[in-house]
Each structure stands twice: as C-alpha cells, then as structure tokens.
Amino acid sequence: MEVITYETSYPKFKDSLLKYTCERYDVKLTVLGLGDEFKGVFQKIIAFSEYVSTLSDDDIVMCCDSRDVFIWSDGPTIVERYQQMTDSILFGDDWMCFPMFPLHKYYPKRDSYLCSGVYLGYVHSLKKMFERAIYCYENLSSVMLENFSLTDEDIQAEEYVYESRLGASIRQSDQFMCSLVYLTTDLIELDSSSQLIQTFNLCPDSLPLYLRTIDEIGEMRTDRYYDMVFDRDKMEIYNEYLGTYPLIFHAPGPPHPISMLNKFLKGDYGQVGTLF
Question: Which residues contact 44 (CB under 8 A, 6 or more apart)?
C-alpha cells in the first residue's frame, strides 16, 4: 500500500504526524504539491488524479490530508482490513454534512456523511472517481440541477459556512465533489462504523456549521468520535463506543486535537490514556 498526500508547505509536512507514523510503520508516503501556491483544496483532486494515472490498476492507494491524519498500523494490516470490508473506495465519515448541507437528505444515514480527509481503494476505481469528480467540478451547475434540483442560487446560499482557508469558494471544495460522486455513482462506501477509518471532528458549537446541523437535524450523538482509548504498549487505539480498533485517523476542524495526538503518540504523555 502507498499513501499519497498533498501539501504545499515543506515545514508543515516535515513535522506532520502523517510523516512520523508512515516512517514508524514503514509505509511508502508520497507527497505532492511541495512548493505550489495554495489556491484551494480542489488542487488535491487534480494532483491525486495525475499521480494515480501512472500506477497499476490493481494497486491499493490511500489518499489523505497531510496535517491532520495519521496511521497506526503497517500497510499489509491496513490492506487486509480494507479487503475484508469492501472492494469499493472507502471514505471516512463525519456527523456533519459539509459543505453542501442541502444534500444531507440524500444520504442513507442521518449522522454519516462523506469526509474527504481520508480514503483508500484500488487504483482502477480511484481513476474513475477522480474523472467523475473533475466532471462535477467543471459542470457543477448542471450536475446539481439534474440530480438534486438545486440551482446556482442554492449553491451560493451555502458559501457562508465555507472557510477561506479552504479556498475562495464552495465550488472549489474537494469534499463537495467527492460527495457528488458518492451520491451519483456506486464507486464509494463510507466507513460509518469506524472499522478502519476513524474521524473525530471537534467542531465548536458556536460555528455556523454546527448551529445549522443541530437546527435542521436536531441533537445528534457524537460519542463514537470521542470515546478513544490509546494504548501505546499494545499498539492499539480503541473506540469504546463502537467497540472497534481503527487503524487510520483523521482529526478535521480546529488544530488542537491533532496537536494533542502528536504529543501523545510521539511519547510525550504516559503509556496508557484516554483522550477526549
């Protein structure tokens, strides 16, 4: 298995938990984009698409963010777990539908929405996914209208939750385009039970994103993201709420969770502990 990430800043990459854990478990890590001018997160889709086009169709590749992701196992173990679960592209999930909230009603589960920070699959499937994502990017207005009866005005109305650090517009969101692939094809599955990919999004309850979700959907239980026990002696991370042992972790949102994890997993804290 190969891990691919996109990062424009060499200092950020050099100090990342992703780099540290890939080295620890001897997993090949390829970083794309170093030295590029950052314009928006859709750059990841373009870079990943160009890179996987050079790989064998039967290879298994993990694509992920650089600054808030880490692995906690070797490549063969991750691949074995993945193959036991599915042969589709497997994405982590999140409890908030971001950035295009009107799509939430098309998802099969109320609290399980696609999160584009981590996904893995066979190269032949990834090639198809990236092709479809780029098509959605280039033809967004027609895709939204034909599949979901949503207009350009509906898209514009969601701009208020989109953070400038991710790019100039919701129309440049990789998560938006991957969500459209999920909802319009059979290429993608979500790891909603955190069997392999664990997402824990500590979203402040003052953010418009949080307030909108609670207002529209109601109070939602998010224990499965926070009840994590870290045991460095056994080399295990355990989700007490779901009873699972995920191997890939993504902490989107504010930077303090990944900062805490960085200290703990590198040995700055005790041998056994519970975070969150």
Answer: 6, 33, 63, 65, 174
Q: Mean pLDDT over all residues of the chain? A: 89
Whether this prediction's pTM lies above 0.85 is answered by yes
**Rounded to an integer, what distance in angstroms lies between the CA atom of residue 258 and that of residue 12?**
13
Q: Which band of pLDDT confidence, cut at 50, 70 and 90, is reported for residue 224?
A: low
Q: Indicate the burial class of 183 (C-beta count within 10 angstroms; 0-12, 13-18, 19 or more).
A: middle
pLDDT digits (tens, 9 = 90+) for 38-66: 999 999 999 999 999 999 999 999 999 99
Q: Which of 203, 185, 44, 230 is CA-nearest to residue 119?
A: 44
- Cα dihedral 188, 192, 198, 201, rounded to 10, equals 100
Residue 217, both tokens: 């959907």
Q: Which residues contact 14 (CB under 8 A, 6 or more apart)?
A: none
Residue ranges of the alpha helices (H) in the chain?
10-14, 17-24, 42-52, 75-85, 123-138, 140-148, 152-156, 174-184, 208-217, 223-226, 256-265
Pair of tokens at residue 143: 């895709």
Which residues, at least 6 apart from 163, have a Cβ–Cβ distance to it below 8 Å? none
Secondary structure of residue 212 in the 3-state scheme: helix
Region label for 56, one of left (φ > 0), alpha (ψ between -120 and 50) or beta (otherwise) = beta
